[in-house]
Specification:
This protein is α+β, with helices and mostly antiparallel strands. The protein has 3 helices and 22 strands.
Length: 318
Amino acid sequence: MAVVTPLKWDGSSLKEMDSTDIANIKTEMIRQYALSPSVTLTVEADADPDSISGGPLVMTRTQAGAASTSATAFPDEATTAEPSIVSTNVNKIKQQKATVSTPADTNNKRFPVYLDGNTVQAMSLQDMIDTFADPVIDTLTNGSLTTAQAGTYRVHTATTLSGATQILQTSTGSGDTVYLDSRADTSLYTAAGIPETLDQSTTISSYYLFRVDAAAQGTIPTPLYVNADDDLQQFATATFQTILQEVVKHTAVNVAGSRIDYNYTTGTNLGSSMVDTRLDGAGNYQTLQVDADDYRAQEFPNGAAQTISTYNLKVQQT
């Protein structure tokens, strides 16, 4: 149960794979994971908040206070309603972990062989995990945005992201965003409009979910295995690809310390931070006289934008 070096046939003799061969196998394992990830994220109108820890995310903004009226004079500022905070809980990202069976190891010789002293030995499933899957999971979850992280997710502030594909909402509702930063639009509040609609906002930033794309298929070294006649035989490429996919999918959901988990609290940040901002003013007091016995006053949102909360989609190994 360790990191081992598989054997290959170099055209004339058995030979241990070199570091380039091992790296190429890991690259193909990453590509196989991207083709069928076992930990996935979707965008829902109202996702299960228990599927991803650290939520819900909260969006806030200020809105106008209720208008006041008087038949004799403008309502005093001290008596008019102050601007208030509108808060919305957001649960748009849903995490799903597939049920993955432990890869079969028929007759304990399904996996590649290596040299154990002077003995040719078939790798165990644990050897496959130690040699290939564990380091692949480390690479997948390091937060970079390359094809070496294919099949993992990122948050971005636009609807396109080079090297990744946007995850669209699976149901109708509130669109494909996973978070919005909105603030009161002070330009929409006027004294002439009193009583103004309380909540009038503008979107400052929109955030979207992406999955990193897989690379094109590259060089795939094919090691040797013990066939049904107990002879050494070179893997067919498709057979070896199937094994690589089974092992990495199993590791990502079943192997303690290498399980992929997305959340909002612990781990490596994935893409853009999602920022909630809000105006910090105490209220813009405005008045309107409509006629001799109709005096109106209202306080509108005002002030400078302040950051209230910052959220990040994260990944960790559990």
